[in-house]
Design goal:
mainly alpha, two-stranded antiparallel sheet, elongated
């Protein structure tokens, strides 16, 4: 394990991806290239419970998923214990995990979580609470709440897409039916004209008017179908844009959390050194 870790550290220090070791990494936190960031599965760390990309080597080993930070701590200080506040198994040197320690310094004493009712939530800023419908949630309940809301939004988008596709299919069937009826009527008019060359001009004008009306109706219906198709394409493009924005926001959030985590670790280490 130490040898593998040293190899991974050496690879990342050279600016190469720690997974494939073939391309420069583009993530300052996980040290992965763009291709591996898209391909690798995101899993939850057994200890700190954050999401991270599981390396191919770890996946083949079929071991419990552990992020790089927690893996380094296990190697240096051993197995962690449960945090006395949130219950997450990430208390390494004290009775509290780093997340709760830093939150307690930033936001004061913990309060009961609105969901699990455990006293491990912290009263954060109003701007932060607007993202979770003005609730006061602990770390685990916040993750669960955001995940469920994301799934609900995705199901709603899928339902809207299904309604668009169903409407488009109905219009296409209607267009096909009217087109068949128009072609049939045209053939009947042509056959009638061929069979009776002696029909009067008035009947001819009426038939021509009917034919023009049918052609106009067919053209209008075709334009309606084309307009619905354009709206469907626009809706799909909007959904793709929203998905891309959501992925970018998740990646940015993960980067910010990792940066905050490093800062908090430094602060905690500084405080521990001061106590010693």
């Amino acid at each position: 394990l130490d040898r593998a870790a040293s190899m991974s550290s050496s690879t990342s220090s050279r600016g190469m991806c720690v997974n494939c070791r073939k391309a420069p990494h583009s993530s300052s936190v996980e040290k992965l290239c763009k291709k591996c960031l898209k391909r690798l599965e995101r899993v939850e760390c057994t200890y700190c419970r954050i999401d991270f990309h599981q390396l191919d080597k770890a996946k083949r080993a079929a071991a419990a998923p552990v992020c790089r930070s927690c893996k380094d701590k296990v190697r240096t200080v051993g197995e962690p214990s449960e945090c006395e506040l949130c219950g997450v198994r990430a208390a390494w040197t004290t009775g509290k995990c780093n997340r709760c320690t830093m939150a307690q310094l930033d936001f004061g004493e913990p309060v009961p979580c609105d969901h699990c009712e455990r006293r491990c939530a912290f009263v954060r800023s109003a701007e932060y609470r607007t993202k979770i419908d003005d609730l006061t949630l602990c770390f685990l309940c916040t993750r669960k709440y955001k995940r469920e809301r994301s799934q609900r939004d995705r199901r709603a988008d899928d339902a809207d897409g299904d309604r668009w596709r169903k409407r488009l299919d109905e219009l296409r069937r209607e267009h096909t039916g009217i087109k068949s009826a128009t072609q049939k009527r045209l053939r009947e008019l042509e056959e009638a004209a061929s069979a009776d060359q002696g029909y009067n001009r008035k009947e001819l004008q009426r038939s021509e008017a009917q034919l023009a009306a049918l052609k106009r109706e067919l053209r209008e219906l075709g334009e309606h179908v084309d307009a619905d198709q354009r709206r469907m394409d626009s809706a799909r493009a909007t959904l793709r844009t929203l998905d891309a924005q959501l992925l970018a926001e998740r990646a940015e959030l993960a980067t910010v959390e990792q940066a905050a985590k490093r800062l908090r670790r430094q602060l905690t280490q500084t405080q521990e050194d001061a106590f010693e």
